[in-house]
Amino acid sequence: MRILIAADVLGEPNNGTSIATYNLINALKERGHEVRVLCPDKNRIGEEGYYVLPPMNFFIFNKYVRRVGVCPSKADYKVFEEALDGVDELHVMLPFIASSKLVAYANKKNIPISAGFHCQAENITSHLFLMWSKLATRIVYKTFWRKCYHSVDCIHYPTEFIKHDFEKRVGPTNAYVISNGVKSHFKKEKLEKPEELKDKFVILMTGRYCREKRQDLLIKALKYSRFEKKIQLIFAGDGPKRKKLSRLAKRLTNKPIFGYHKPEELLKIINYSDLYVHTAYAELESISALEAISCGLVPVINNTKRSATKNFAIDDLNLFKKNDPKSLASKIDYWISHPEDLKVRSNDYLEYTKRFEFDHCMDRMEKMIKEAVEVRKYKIEHNLHHRIVYYKDPLTDDFAGTQISQKKVDDNFVYVHENKIWRFLSTIFYFGIAHPIFFFLVKIKRHVRVKNKKVLKKVKKSGYFLYGNHTNIYDAFIPHTQVSRFKKTYIIANPDAVSIKGTKNIVMMLGVLPTPSSVQSMKNFNAAIEKRIAQKRVIVIYPEAHIWPFYNGLRPFGDISFQYPAKLDAPSIAMVTTYRKPKFKINKKRRPFIDITLSEPIYPNPELSQRENMRYIRDQVYNFMKQTIESTSSPEYINYVQDSSSTKFEN
After folding, report:
1. pLDDT per residue as tens digits for the range 475-522
2. What is the pLDDT of the chain when averaged over all its residues?
3. Fewer CB atoms near the end CB (10 Å): N or C, the chain?
């Protein structure tokens, strides 16, 4: 294949993205492909296979950009045309201006495109002093999506962490989670320390000296360490914060060693160091950390939500509290005080890092690029203009985009609160605050319309069940605000809903009934459902269980969730979500609006057993849903395609 790799930033291999780019270029060449490179490096002009773009002009900020060490490209369509001539596939490394325009240009030519996700939002917001802002992060990711990623055929994410981080803002993508890999020469060797370091405990940290890497935490931590006089810090890297870090370290007994090192020199440093510390607040994968632990160097990692590196921790001894130098100092002191434990953990990491073997990762990257070609062919053959998402199993695959550490709903979980104050506050919060807010939210954001609403009059004097297809995040409150309206509505959800710290009482007041995790909690769960139906309330169930945003079909589901209306002799109503195009197309990429269609009430058949009624009600609901969806021309927004053979499903 003839592959064009677009690197908005290339330069020297002194940062993670540049190293990943050079590794991919060389790996594809070794596998017999012709590789072209589009980059802004003037020193590459005239070099075979390289197409050079002019660098962007930041005017008064040019000096600052040079200090940062990143100089994005400027779009040049003549160079684009020359570089794309005859290529079989385009792979872009970053979603910056030149690559985004290149993606749009290549799309017009129907060239297959894959894209790497190598820029975390904080890599940009940190320079704007907005690193802690969730709104700024959201705006950056939405911009990446609109300008670049929505048009590509496959997206490469180095970690599950960054995949979830991006998809919870933009929805499911055709995602390939593949590590950038660690080269085989990063392996443990027994090396003597240099003479001047023989009596020191050497702590290494690698990475650019920039705001989000937080090297300052390691320097501050030494002030709290019992072994400060014994510790020698090595900061391998370079960047705009070098002078500031040097000033901060002036009072340390042993002055830190700063500087960029060639790969062979860095390998030696890793092998004679005693401990690796990773303080970055935000990190996509951190190949530098992987390189260190692949040599058996034990890490201590910043336990921040914005970093994927924390997932390399074997246990809490490899983590310190978020941005806390005192916590870091205590972990450093532990490993210095327990040299035998350090040796054991070193061997554990040698085993752990086998999964990041470089050649295996590059084989998967090659497969992804080939699959991008097949995805583009599929789009052309089926005249598809929006994203494709591949799935393996319609019963278990979930595209909700959440990554919540699930807690068990145990025997002590309270489904029905008897406390009068709690119930009073719940009513005030539900009808006085949440209900009006969510009502206007779904009306303004998704312009929800409800069809056949008159059927609700037939169940006005009884409790009933609503069964819906699960295709939107707004499913959590559309039934409450648009369907049942002034009847208190409860929704059966998985334990994720009550697993977020500090929100359990709020979501319970909103009517969540989490599925139980034990026999006793199952009894409490069933009793709660019986009580709510007896109180003439509404219970919402999504039998498909998992969210598939904007799915235009109906997934298979069993009859187990229909045991409740069959047992309680209660009516059920099918609630079908379909979609319609906005009347006014201000933005072509705008998400479609929502239509809800209600069925006539479905009652259990008195001549059938409970088990037979479960199947009977299920079939009535399923058939109504299927007929409604098939008779409605929902607009194309996300196309779901089954393919279990893709390399995206490999480990």
Report:
1. 998 999 999 988 999 999 988 888 888 888 999 999 999 999 889 999
2. 91
3. C
Residue 161 lies in a domain: yes
Q: The domain that contains 268 carries what CATH number?
A: 3.40.50.2000
More confident residue, 510 or 385: 510
Domain match, 234 and 142 both: no
**For 338, how many CA atoms within 13 A lie in the half-sphere containing its CB?**
13
pLDDT exceeds 90 at position 283: no
Q: Which amino acid is at 294?
A: S
Q: Which regions of 382-436 does DSSP assign to beta strands (E)? A: 387-391
The verdict on 114 and 176 lying in the same domain is yes
User: Per the domain annotation, does 491 fall within a domain?
Assistant: yes
Q: Which CATH number do you get for residue 508?
A: 3.40.1130.10
pLDDT reading at 585 higher than 60: no
Sheet holding 113-116, edge to edge: 50-52, 34-39, 2-6, 89-92, 113-116, 154-157, 175-177
Measured between alpha carbons, how far is residue 249 from residues 203, 215, 217, 235, 278 in Å?
14, 11, 11, 12, 17
Q: With pLDDT > 70 as the criterion, what percentage of the chain qualifies?
A: 97
| pLDDT on residue 254 | 95
Kindly compute the dihedral angle of the four CA atoms of residues 518, 521, 527, 531, in this order, to the nearest 10 degrees: -130
Q: Cα–Cα–Cα angle for 324, 329, 330, nearest 5°?
A: 100
Same structural domain, 483 and 561? yes
